[in-house]
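dumping these here so i dont lose them again. two proteins, back to back, each one seq then structure tokens. dont judge the mess
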Amino acid sequence: MHWVLIAMLVAGLWGGWNWWSSERHVHVPPGIVAAAEPEQRNIDSRVTFDAKGHTFIKRAEFALTARVLRKEIYRVDGGANLAPVDLGLGWGPMSDSRIVDQLEFSQMGRFLFWRPRNPATFPLAPAAITANAAQVHAIPANAAIERTLRYLRPGQVVTLRGFLVDVRGPSGFAWNTSLSRTDTGDGACELMWIESAHAH
């Protein structure tokens, strides 16, 4: 019983520290904190590289500065060894607390979900939310970048640079990126090989 209590105490302390360091929301005053849309330059030729036991196909150079709307860490799903962190990111009106604070966000099954707290008074159309937000499956190029991604907190502004990629792996594994900010549903998320991550 003594060891059970110690284990529970340690688990509680770890959970509290994890929430404080990486889950606690950052207070953001009203106003747009990430104004620019993502920068994307599509790559027409087939450029590939191998990493993490997979082959990556570069589809576009990609960079964005955005507000973290939500973050989810994956440990056991099929893509966890490649993209351990999913980031729900917003720019333009979706980086403004006057809009963001009227929404509830969740992440499940590698999707970002949102819901207005009061649909009758929410000022943005669904298409405007879709066009100014993205669910990024984050593939860190190294351990330092992964550490930065894991410790991002909702409300922080982050700048990411790298490539949108398709991935091929053993046993027919295939994971493709979206190249659009206006699509929805299956295949609409950005799969990003991240070579630089800077939290503001």
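---- next one ----
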Amino acid sequence: MVVVTGGAGFIGSWIVWSLNRRGIENILVVDHIGDSEKWKNLRSLRFCDYMEKDAFISRIHNKDPLPDIRTIFHMGACSSTTQTDGSYLVHNNFEYTKALAAYASLRKIRFIYASSAATYGDGAKGFQDDESRMNGLLPLNMYGYSKQLFDLWAAQRDMLSSMVGIKFFNVFGPNENHKGAMRSFVLKGFEQIKKTGSLRLFQSCRDDFRDGEQLRDFVYAADAAAMALFFMDNPRANGIFNVGTGRARSWNDLAGAIFKAMAITPRIEYIAMPEDLKDKYQYYTQADISKIRSAGYAAETMPLEDAVKEYIREYLNNDAHLGERVEGQMNP
């Protein structure tokens, strides 16, 4: 059996869908749906069971019998970069991951978990997925620090020699509708343009970046999921790995791709950056993906313009979730 925590969420549901495309349905989805719209992400996915997060972690703590688990994809976490409740983040992102990692390690279960590019902070120390450099990283927000805490905890116990931590960069694509303020700018921009005909981007507060020329490594969810599954297939690849495209693109580039996919003439307004973001804003991110390449991952990532076009024209224009049939082309 494969367990996918956060399996009703964004990247988690992509992993379930990608497993389905391989014919794998012996999957336990673990999540906390609550009153969110995440349940819609599950409608077209195939899995053998669903369990709420609290029930699952209770069974882990109590050492209750679980089915024969071969792999755990631990994608469940609070992913809000603006969450200020440090105790909540420590409990949800750090303590929960520790319990699952210990359980997996004791039973020789393949454990693949979501770290984050937010651990790199402002990027001054680079974006190399090198375990020996992790102690020097300075995350800019509590979310990033909660991820950093577990990376360091696992490294101190030599657990990274038998598991994988994935540092996802800026992932976008179908099934992120439920994420509220944490939705990608592709989705937010699509909605802005439909409503107003224009897009708003933050002005730059630094002389070395023009307005809209701040850079990010934008990676399509299909590529992020494919890279995650690579580690299931390759148990000798262990440690911390970046997942991105390895190419930084500007917000202006992304805005242009959104307008083009919507067949609308670009109109961009540059607005002042909120004061509470100025000291936490990343002006440049770019994944160094040489490590995953060296481990054997050879597939090329989808170009930004093509990925944005697919997302908007095949999903957002049709209000479709992953795996839902649109003109007969969406089902695996």
